[in-house]
């Protein structure tokens, strides 16, 4: 699949041609949310091939930056993300996927449903005396949906320092 | 505000210390969604200062990559984003803001409510005979919420080719 060339701001913002912009690493960021709850599940990255595969199959594909390979989400864990809707933003340098997740509905390698399982207090909430900004995260999911060891075994953890 | 150093995967994924990872450009991507509808409004980027300002004030601040400056969203347009909840992801290299937007609720410089105002057909929907993948975007918002000329005047459009 060949995407249209980016020629004018008007074409990119107001047109109906798909003209994605990949960054200096050849990637476009992708926000993935649960289609029913609206909860953001993860922020991933797609290269050209992953974007094309996602469009062609209707299942989310990403570029794994840690493993440096095409990543068909759920191919190992069974937690495939079925795309309910794909959108692209104004300057076409970001993708939004609304998905329904197979199996137990989890999308996070740590075992939680969403990768965003911790809250950061902001504004007035930070002004209480006990607040320590260096120790400020609050878990929003109390229990893991699955045990990563069961699903991934000894596959290397993708988190990098 | 000093963030905790990133020392171990367990600390980053399972701990309560805020240890954000900024990329090679000193930025962390930020998904911003409407707190009530769950609609994703924009994908922005924060540098250290923007993240600290957002935490301290409870209003979304970003780093404008086009203008290369700290960007208090809504400072010019009045469309301030009040943070209802901030979250951070497993490896702490992405932020999610749930916001309520002042004024008419719009967040997109083109005049739409969400920057993601166009849909991309995927999967089975692409297999109909009339589908042309190079001309494939479908508008999801029929009318603009505001006229960008009224709000921004002749400020340079941030979209880059």
Describe the model.
- Two copies of one chain form a homodimer.
- Helix content of chain A is 13%, strand content 27%.
- Chain A has three helices and eight strands.
- Chain A has helices at 9-14, 48-57, 148-152; strands spanning 28-34, 40-46, 61-64, 69-72, 81-88, 95-101, 118-120, 137-139.
- Chain A has a four-stranded mixed sheet.
- At the A-B interface, helix 1, strand 1, strand 2, helix 2 and strand 5 of A face helix 1, strand 1, strand 2, helix 2 and strand 5 of B.
- Strand 5 (81-88) of chain A pairs antiparallel with strand 7 (118-120) of chain B, so a sheet runs across the interface.
Briefly note the structural class of the backbone of chain A.
Answer: alpha+beta
Q: Enumerate how many helices of chain A there are, as a single number.
A: 3
Helix content of chain A: 10-25%
Greatest chain-chain contact? A-B, 69 and 69 residues
Overall shape of chain A: it is globular
Span between N and C termini of chain A?
36 Å
Question: How many whole angstroms does the radius of gyration of chain A measure?
Answer: 18 Å
The largest β sheet of chain A comes out as: 4 strands, mixed
Q: Helices and strands of chain A, in N-to-C order? A: HEEHEEEEEEH
Q: DSSP strand (E) fraction of chain A?
A: 25-35%
Mean pLDDT of chain A: 91
Assembly level: homodimer
For the biggest β-sheet of chain A, the strand order reads 2-1-6-5
- For the secondary structure, the number of strands of chain A is 8
Stretches of chain A where pLDDT is under 50 for at least 5 consecutive residues are none
């Amino acid at each position: 699949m060949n995407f249209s060339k980016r020629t004018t701001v008007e074409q990119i913002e107001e047109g109906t041609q798909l003209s994605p912009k990949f960054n200096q690493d050849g990637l476009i960021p992708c926000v993935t949310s649960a289609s029913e709850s609206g909860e953001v599940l993860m922020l991933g990255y797609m290269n050209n091939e992953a974007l094309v595969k996602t469009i062609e199959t209707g299942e989310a594909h990403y570029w794994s930056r840690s493993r440096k390979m095409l990543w068909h989400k759920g191919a190992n864990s069974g937690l495939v993300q079925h795309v309910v809707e794909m959108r692209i933003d104004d300057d076409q340098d970001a993708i939004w996927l609304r998905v329904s997740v197979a199996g137990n509905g989890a999308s996070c390698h740590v075992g939680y449903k969403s990768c965003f399982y911790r809250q950061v207090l902001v504004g007035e909430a930070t002004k209480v005396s006990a607040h320590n900004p260096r120790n400020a995260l609050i878990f929003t999911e109390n229990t893991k949906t699955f045990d990563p060891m069961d699903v991934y075994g000894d596959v290397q953890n993708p988190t990098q320092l």
